[in-house]
Specification:
- By secondary structure, this protein is mostly helical.
- It has one domain.
- It has helices at 27-41, 65-73, 82-104, 111-129.
- The two termini are 26 Å apart.
- 0% of the residues are buried.
């Protein structure tokens, strides 16, 4: 966890993750609110914002992504070994995704590149506000 530059000892170094779904039309207002709160309290309210792409809630998706992220995050609270298991799970997931694409006869895009592209897109949106 990154440490704050504050020296008054009041900074809580523990952080919680939240999975927030923001409609595209409300994205600007959401980011502006975070920026306004940062200026007001002299520290960011969100350590980082990670763009995951669109969700399927509007289609009545049966897969509960919030629950999945909650389960994955449980490794972060382990005293030791949590990162080992997370790396192993990531490898298992990536292997399964590659296998599924092959079975469907589809070309798999480079997920790491598309992930970084999504983060760049989010950074551009934040930069446009400033």
């Amino acid at each position: 966890m990154p440490r704050s530059n504050r020296t008054d000892g009041k900074y809580n170094r523990k952080a919680d993750y939240f999975l927030v779904s923001v409609k595209e039309r409300n994205m600007r207002e959401f980011l502006e609110t975070l920026e306004r709160e940062k200026r007001r309290h002299a520290e960011p309210k969100a350590d980082s914002i990670t763009a995951l792409g669109s969700n399927q809630k509007h289609l009545g998706s049966k897969v509960d992504m919030e629950e999945l992220f909650y389960f994955l995050n449980s490794y972060n609270s382990m005293e030791s070994g949590g990162t080992f298991y997370l790396r192993r799970l990531k490898k298992i997931i990536m292997e399964q995704i590659e296998k599924d694409y092959k079975e469907m006869g589809m070309t798999m895009r480079d997920l790491k590149i598309s992930y970084y592209d999504k983060q760049d897109e989010m950074d551009e949106k934040k930069t446009c506000l400033n």
